[in-house]
Amino acid sequence: MSDGLAEIWRTGLRNRGFVIGGIITVSFVLLAAIALIWTPYPVEEIVVTRRFQGISSAHWLGTDQFGRDLVSLLMAGAVNSVAVAIVAVGLGVGIGVPLGAIAAARQGWLDEILMRANDFAFAFPALLSAVMITALAGPGAINSIIAIGIFNIPVFARLTRGAALVVWKREFIMAARVAGKGPLRISIEHILPNISSVLIVQVTIQFALAILAEAGLSYLGLGTQPPQPSWGKMLNEAQTLMFLAPQLAIFPGVAIALTVLGLNLFGDGLRDVLDPRLRRER
Amino acid sequence: MTLLSIENLCVELEGPNGVCRLLDQVNLSLSKGQCLGLVGESGCGKSMTAMAIIGLLPQGMRAHGKILLNGEDLLKADEERLCQLRGRKVAMVFQEPMTALNPVVPIGRQVAEGLRLHLGLTRHEAETRASQTLARVGLPVERFALSLFPHQLSGGQRQRVVIAMALACGPEILVADEPTTALDVTVQAQILDLLADIIDEFGMGLVLITHDLGVVAETTDTMAVMYAGRLVEDGPTVEVFERMAHPYTRGLFAAMPSHSSEGSTTRSPLTTIPGRVPDALSRPAGCPFVTRCGFATDLCSRELPLMKTLGHRHNAACFNIAHVEEGS
Amino acid sequence: MTLFLVKRLIMLAATLLVAAIVVFSVLEILPGDPALVMLGVSAQPDTLAALRAEMGLDQPAWTRFFQWIGGLMTGELGRSYTYDVPVSELIGERVVVSLPLAVMALTLSTVIAIPLGVIAASRHNKTLDIALTGAAQFGIAIPNFWFAILLILLFSVTLQWVPAGGFAGWDAGFWPATQSLLLPAFALALPQAAILTRVTRSSVLEVLQEDFVRTARAKGLSRNAALWRHAVRNALIPVITILGLQFSFLLAGTIIIENVFYLPGLGRLLFQAIAQRDLIVVKDLVVLLAGSVVLVNFIVDLGYAVLDPRLRSGGGHV
Prior knowledge:
Chain B is an alpha/beta fold. Helix content of chain B is 34%, strand content 24%. In chain B, α4 packs across α5 (123-136). Chain C has helices spanning 2-29, 34-39, 45-55, 61-74, 87-122, 127-141, 144-158, 174-208, 211-218, 223-260, 266-275, 279-307, 309-312. In chain C, α7 crosses α8. The longest helix of chain C has 38 residues, at 223-260. Chain A binds chain C through residues 119-120, 122-128, 131-132, 134-136, 208, 212, 215-216, 219-220, 222, 232, 235, 238-239, 242-243, 246, 249-250, 252-253, 256-258, 260-261, 264-265, and chain C through 15, 18-19, 22-23, 26-27, 30-31, 37, 137-138, 140-143, 145-146, 149-150, 152-153, 157, 164, 245, 248-249, 251-252, 255-256, 259-260, 270-271, 273-274, 277, 279, 282, 286, 289-290, 293-294, 297.
């Protein structure tokens, strides 16, 4: 296994997307981690006298309409994005993967019901379900997490089922069944490890989508509520100030785009890196 | 009259580990109304030769030598000229009729397409000609409408469509790459008969690529045996069968189910050639067949045997022809 | 073909019914008292009672459900609580903004993306291909509402070519109305076009490996002729699937984009209805939007049949 990891690492270093995406992703997560204990300025510190400042050595990206430091706000926004994305994708993986694995293991009517429910869930875009949820429960970070998470469930259920069905047809599964192992044990011991790379790649893609969705919901005011900083909310506020301070509308967007770009590059690279190994195993 | 003459054809692929020679010094010639059989195991360069003739080698491959069609060197022709020749002068029949046809285009249009392109026919004229050609290959328009899609036809019928496409513009040379391999045995014979009839009727030259010596014996006038990108034996089919000189040709023959014993209860056991074709990157310095040959000597592993004339246009590339003939 | 159509139609109806059930249970049954949700806990008891009576909450849930479904069928969508006009009227005046916007965006993204994807594939691994795939990566990563803000910054704030938002109305004439939809449509189309370009590219690359492309070349077709006449049509089949899936993202996008540009469309109506907790409007709108997604996917299925003859006929040999 360690040999396999070392080989993946070596192939990975040759893949440009993997390296660039990986660097962006890691620095984004690092930035969020640092923001948990330290930001250049306290995020909620409002100093009206220093509002709308431009780029300076004291405030690298300037300040907003309340005189808050933009770097600090963006770092705190990263925490928010990471947190929402982790929980939402975790929800999708936590529910979707077992559902898909069960569907693949049991087949029959259960499979049919799960897959029809899946088709149906695709008819509701994340935003539509988020809108329904917030209509009832009111806007907020938790509700937007649930909404994005719900959208992730069918994605992972479908992916897991499809990949698991392929593995179920392979010989070593036959061997395990002949040895008397039950479907649950086979799923956990053999199926999941064999489809993990597909799932890992999908996680990075869904992570990027979750960040986009969270930003969209916050922009609409349906997601994270002030004073908790979020990139989407920052863009919303910046839009009304566009004639006054256009730079405020630039940086949060760059943060979102860069993060999503990094995750997507990383995910694509990861797929390229993991794929040949998969092929060789077969 | 020589229609097609291939002289010292080499095909090279530039890879990360240096240049790799896929075809080496191939010489072939074909006359009007004749059928040339190209035989060998898969990976020996038969299909590569076909793709070189039609000028559709995969990207990154370079060909040198000469491919003369009526005296015009196809390897020197530019892409525009090649497009004029393909389908018009040189046409091709592929191995897999299941995938060689575009699944979303009606068969009539697929046959008519070349006619409109090369002969400048109107849509109506082209369709009339297409239905005539389809009728000639055994798909009369009364039963097989031009508007049918490939998935509505059987494998043999599809191969007839592919042949009709190749025939449509009346080419001088037809290259058929394992045209019957993917078909049922009964259909195979029909398609081969059709091809034989057509070259008689149209007076074109046929290059028939196959791994089946039986097909070669029945259909071809001359034959060439290829191994690992090189010719190992060629000549008039009758003579090659009469006096097989190369151990590889003999191996192929021995590995063929005997047609004469068909139906009888006693069958001689089939033999196989041990080992496999060396891949293009790790070919031995001497004779490429040396690792699998029962007659191999030190000389064979050191030096590459060249083609030697054995009789009337019959050549073989082997140092030990005398021994081989004794050994039989 | 007929069987295929009938199957699809049954699926369509079933999905719509399930959608209606889900929306109804989430918005009318789960909250317990929808009237209370709409008016808030500080509502006067008599206003609450009046709304309950208007919404027919004294009747059992299934009666209300069937009344609602019946209303949806006949176009009687109930009355908005906050606007005090029939919901159908509200939707009617908003749809003339949202529908042209969605159509424009979809057209733009298709017209941009499919040729770009095909060109990228035909120049596989050449400079143009690498540039286009790189651009597509950026296009996917840029959130559409931020792109919208950037467009406003450039074309409205800096160049002052178009207004920063609002809708001129179709009464103002075709061009002014279209003009106010232009930036929003571009903002909506960008990420869609980026995804579509990638899908088209990889689909064409795959089809170019197929034997029938080689057959076409052997017939004497040039590289480009084989690409456009034989490869593209086959490659479009998976692209159409993505196009259908994208429609639901497009709808989600209109909710945001209409808010960015202050366009009085369905997305903005939904947003406002939520802010005002007008559940009657929310319920109808969500079903309508989900319904349009299902309908578009039905149309996509029909598109398959047009592109792929194997689906059209029952198959079988002659």
